[in-house]
Design a protein that fits this description.
The chain has a seven-stranded mixed sheet with strand order 2-3-1-4-9-5-8, sandwiched between helices. Strands 6-7 form a two-stranded antiparallel sheet. The chain has a single domain, classed as Peptidase C15, pyroglutamyl peptidase I-like (Aminopeptidase, 3-Layer(aba) Sandwich). Helix 2 packs parallel to helix 4. The protein is an alpha/beta fold and 214 residues long. 29% of the residues lie in helices and 21% in strands. The radius of gyration is 16 Å and the shape is globular. The protein binds pyroglutamic acid. Pyroglutamic acid (PCA) binds next to strand 4 and helix 4. The site of pyroglutamic acid has 12 residues, from strand 4 and helix 4.
Length: 214
């Protein structure tokens, strides 16, 4: 049976939970279309997170890798289109590092595109009633760092597909922030399951509307 690696993150930035780990851990051990899901919790530390990711990829040789992270303030699940080669931290990571305008991979390309069929995922997740959108930026903190690290690691592995999904605060987190949107963890889990299923049955992405003006 082939493996799927699904990662979430530890809490950061003063939060006591991270909805990405709360959601992905519920899918640990799940079987989806003949694949086995392996959920792992990643450190919110530049450098360390990518080392953890490479180790899990070596161990599991997954056909599909989806990294999930919290994007507090966003209202929908965000299927990330592009990872850029820069670390520019607004706050220190959980190890106290705060890189400003540093490259992630010295001789790497400026950007990598996701290899997930994000338009097909958008279509299927929407049809299931999940609030979801395509996002053109994963930011410049640890999530973009991991997304770029993932795409760089799998760049020559044609059979391995990967990408990144940002998710909103959980309702419990949003209760502590004025006017912050949220999604229930169960909704996120449902959305991830559908997104993964679409990845497994879609070789080539579909060209459907999903762009944005900003
Ligand atoms: N979100 C952060 C890092 C960890 C997480 O869950 C980000 O968007 O960069």
């Amino acid at each position: 049976m082939s493996n799927i690696l699904l990662t979430g993150f530890a809490p950061f930035g003063g939060e006591s939970t991270n909805p990405s780990w709360e959601a992905v851990k519920q899918l640990d051990g799940a079987r989806i279309k003949g694949h086995r899901v392996h959920a792992r919790e990643m450190s919110v530390v530049f450098g360390v997170a990518n080392k953890e990711l490479r180790k899990w990829i070596r161990e599991l040789k997954p056909a599909l890798v989806i990294c999930v992270g919290q994007a507090g303030g966003r209202a929908t699940m965000s299927l990330e289109r592009v990872a850029i080669n820069v670390d520019d931290a607004r706050i220190p990571d959980n190890g106290g590092q705060q890189p400003i305008d540093e490259v992630i991979v010295a001789d790497g390309p400026d950007a990598y595109f996701t290899s997930l069929p994000i338009k097909a995922m958008l279509r299927d997740m929407k049809a299931a009633g999940i609030p979801v959108a395509i996002s053109q930026t994963a930011g410049t903190f640890v999530c973009n760092h991991v997304f770029y690290g993932l795409m760089h690691t799998i760049r020559t592995r044609k059979k391995m597909r990967g990408g990144f999904i940002h998710i909103p605060f959980s309702p419990e987190q949003a209760a502590q922030h004025a006017d912050a949107p949220s999604l229930a963890i169960d909704t996120i889990v449902h959305g991830l399951r559908i997104g993964i299923t679409t990845c497994l049955k879609t070789d080539k992405d579909v060209a459907i509307v999903g762009g944005a003006e900003h």
